[in-house]
Amino acid sequence: MASHHHRLHFSQLLFISSLLFFGLCVCFLASPVAAQCKNPPVIFNFGDSNSDTGGLFAGLGFPVDLPNGRTFFGRSTGRLSDGRLLIDFLSQSLNASLLSPYLDSLSESKFNNGANFAVVGSSTLPKYVPFSLNIQVTQFLHFKARTLELVTAGSGNFIDHEGFRNALYMTDIGQNDLADSFSKNLTYIEVIKRIPSVISEIKNAVKTLYDHGGRKFWIHNTGPLGCLPQKLSLIQLLQKKDLDTYGCISSYNAAARLFNEALLHLCQKMRSELKDATIVHVDIFSIKYDLIANSTKYGFSNPLMACCGFGGPPYNYNKQVTCGHRGCPVCAEGSKSISWDGIHYTEAANAMIAFKVLSMAYSTPRTPFDFFCRS
């Protein structure tokens, strides 16, 4: 009996300490003291659903209904999460407003703190299909040209030449390129043969932004694709021998790691090629994989099971009944789930990821996130 109480007491302490750590993370992220910006921070973001703050909803009218947004916003904002995304926490760490989608014509923002060009489902290829990375960069060029026209005409409080030059240019893309390739039943060898083409598109995007005055870049690599409940629910129909120690799909994660190695090499190469540019590579894969592998340490449970989904254990994902659609149940509010809908992360997980990003331990070179607005 005594040992039972001891185990119970220890588990309670572990859970409470995890909640306290999570609370400290959120307080740290929300604190303006952490940032040392001398200039108003301006951010332009390019990517997919991992950083889409409402572009799909605003641009195409695609419904993103509750319970998406329930935790922080109390309503759906177009984000595929119960609350804030990584990019939201990073913006708040600067005491800056959350980024508005470029496609949102009714936004309260005048885009004087930047704009978010990321849209759910985006990839680098095909190059000319909305909203590929190339299309997003093209949208930015139009945005910049029109904004500077307004500045020249003396209209309103818009970003000027210096603002564009000192802005941070963020990219978080590549996951869909890999995922789509696997979904087309390509072999592992066929998938990795496509990686150089994806890397080339990212290089073209950075080079274009550089040629138009951008000098400060923050580039996220891709996460552990093989740990997503959506992917795992499909492999049940295939073969389970491809699962690693933590239950993730080895081949999917191996492809993600190869992509990330190529992206890191690209960043290193561009640093020597692009004069006066600061290019920071962030290892999102390691952060997310650590979160899943050591979920109990961080206060999470069932790391491979969606909070908002259908079907129950082990993955609670059914492509016929996805989060936000009628008949799809959702777990009780709290901070114990890592996966929100089988593809995207919960606010609690995103807060922990942001805390790790801001630590600089996963950045090459080790650079504070607010470096671009310090001088």
Q: What do these coordinates show?
A:
By secondary structure, this protein is α/β, with parallel strands linked by helices. About 40% of the residues lie in helices and about 5% in strands. The chain has helices at about 1-30, 55-60, 85-95, 135-150, 160-165, 175-185, 190-195, 195-210, 230-235, 250-275, 285-295, 345-360; strands at about 45, 115, 170, 215-220, 280, 365. A 6-stranded mixed sheet has the order 2-1-3-4-5-6. Helix 1 (about 1-30) packs across helix 3 (about 85-95), helix 8 runs parallel beside helix 10 and helix 11 packs across helix 12 (about 345-360). The longest helix is centred in the N-terminal third of the chain and has 29 residues, at about 1-30. The radius of gyration is 21 Å and the shape is globular. The relative contact order is 0.15. Mean pLDDT is about 90; it is low at about 1-20.
Q: How do the strands line up in the largest sheet?
A: 2-1-3-4-5-6
Q: List how many beta strands DSSP finds.
A: 6
Approximately how much beta-strand content do the residues carry?
5-15%
Mean pLDDT: 91
Unreliable spans are 1-19
Q: Helix and strand string, N-terminal first?
A: HEHHEHHEHHHEHHEHHE
Measured distance between first and last alpha carbons = 62 Å
Total number of helices: 12
Largest sheet: 6 strands, mixed
Q: How much helicity do the residues have?
A: 40-55%
- The shape, in one word, is globular
> Structural class of the secondary structure composition?
alpha/beta
Determine Rg (CA atoms, Å).
21 Å
Which helices and strands, and how do they pair?
Blueprint: H1 2-30, E1 43-47, H2 55-60, H3 86-93, E2 114-116, H4 133-152, H5 161-166, E3 168-172, H6 175-183, H7 188-193, H8 195-211, E4 216-220, H9 229-235, H10 250-273, E5 278-282, H11 284-293, H12 347-358, E6 363-364
Parallel strand pairs: 1-2, 1-3, 3-4, 4-5
Antiparallel strand pairs: 5-6
